Amino acid sequence: xxxxxxxxxxxxxxxxxxxxxxxxxxxxxxxxxxxxxxxxxxxxxxxxxxxxxxxxxxxxxxxxxxxxxxxxxxxxxxxxxxxxxxxxxxxxxxxxxxxxxxxxxxxxxxxxxxxxxxxxxxxxxxxxxxxxxxxxxxxxxxxxxxxxxxxxxxxxxxxxxxxxxxxxxxxxxxxxx
Length: 177
Prior knowledge:
By secondary structure, the protein is α+β, with helices and mostly antiparallel strands. It folds into two domains: 2-107, Orthogonal Bundle (Helix Hairpins), CATH 1.10.287; 127-174, SH3 type barrels (Roll), CATH 2.30.30. It has helices at residues 2-48, 53-85, 90-107, 109-124, 164-169, and strands at 132-135, 138-145, 149-153, 159-163, 172-174. It has a five-stranded antiparallel sheet with strand order 4-3-2-1-5. The protein is elongated and about 85 Å long.
């Protein structure tokens, strides 16, 4: 009889902890959406009165990417709190997260390098849409810019995608300035 009562109490405690963890996840999801929208709104209000259309596109891109980073970090924190609330030891969670973070960092090293180079290019205004540039053996008109790569159209009407770390690490000749 005692074992059945213990089992009932354990099930009851698990259900309560599960519902609390679910509530934590919902709370962090709402917080993530709110902060993402707040960052985008603040960025668009601050920039619109200051810059040209090309600069606005670049700045909006940075604010959008930054808001996505904040969004995913917030959700990630919610998952951590929810898992810890379920009774899993913090050391176990942190060890798993550390291993996962190391593997993810190594796997995404090139992507992260291009992302940071894209921010560098944007902040230093090295070129804008419709500028004619040359870097290494590539030259043409800039038709699009993202935080990962820059797209140019050469004189033969070919579309060339150049990773931003190449632009950051080499001499850029801007014929439009």
